[in-house]
Amino acid sequence: MDYLQTKGRIFDIQRYSIHDGTGIRTICFLKGCVLRCKWCCNPESQEYEIQEMTVGGKPKTIGRDVTVAEVMETVEKDRPYYVRSGGGLTLSGGESLCQPAFARDLLHAAKAVGINTAMESMGCAKWKVIEEILPYLDHYLMDIKHMDSGKHKQFTGKGNELMLENAKKIAASGQTRLSIRVPVIPTFNDTPEEIGAIAKFADKLPGVEEIYLLPYHRLGQDKYEGLGRAYELTNILPPEPEYMQMLKETVEGCSALVCHIGG
User: CA 249 to CA 243: how far, in whole Å?
Assistant: First the structure.
């Protein structure tokens, strides 16, 4: 089982999560991302390099190199919770596809011992990379942020063409459950027209039944100061619950998707 010795770089492992997949989950956060979303709540994930970040006035090393086997030691500790709740392992980041061999082999290791697998991802990679991961993935939680490539590039640093094409291919493959997630960001994509456009696209993807609207929050803002970076959305307020409910009703009015707020 050579795949157990594959090395990768992570910055956190979070246990007992009830987000990012069904049931109680262990989330492994991988270093590195191809996007630079202005609202990113994990800016320490963006660079692959190991970094120093000031946390609570003290320097903290962000990032460490591990093997698949080392991560699985932590994942295995909570197997009874996975069995009872339908949970398992979720890969997050960053963008897990930036470390394709490590992501593939970590998912492989979990599947080999009967643990449910999920991955939060923007799908921003060559199709061959995604294709090699799908056999070991039970649930693909895919972010779709905007249907307009120009606005997508303005707020994330890249256009959306590759991601939208990959969403179609993942859905058509029928190899994994695919759910769409939309970070709802004021000034970027929070109008009924923009959310509705994403919902209509997702509704046409074969097998996709759910969409999650994730309201903008500021929980990661202090991390930017800790990294010596400026946070660009200081004047943006989180959307009110009533507004999120209106967007949910917009999705339900233009698609057959089950719409969730949060998750």
Answer: 10
The H or E element that residue 111 is part of is helix 100-112
* Class of residue 220 by CB neighbours under 10 A (exposed 0-12, middle 13-18, buried 19+): middle
Q: Which residue has the tokens 């599947």?
A: 111
Overall pTM > 0.85: yes
b/e map of 86-105 (b: 16 or more CB within 10 Å)?
ebbbbbbbbbbbbbbebbbb
Structure token pair of residue 103: 């992501």
Gyration radius (Cα) of the chain, Å: 18
DSSP 239: P
The CA distances from residue 70 to 5, 156, 172, in Å, are 9, 33, 34
pLDDT in tens, 77-135: 999 999 999 999 999 999 999 999 999 999 999 999 999 999 999 999 999 999 999 99
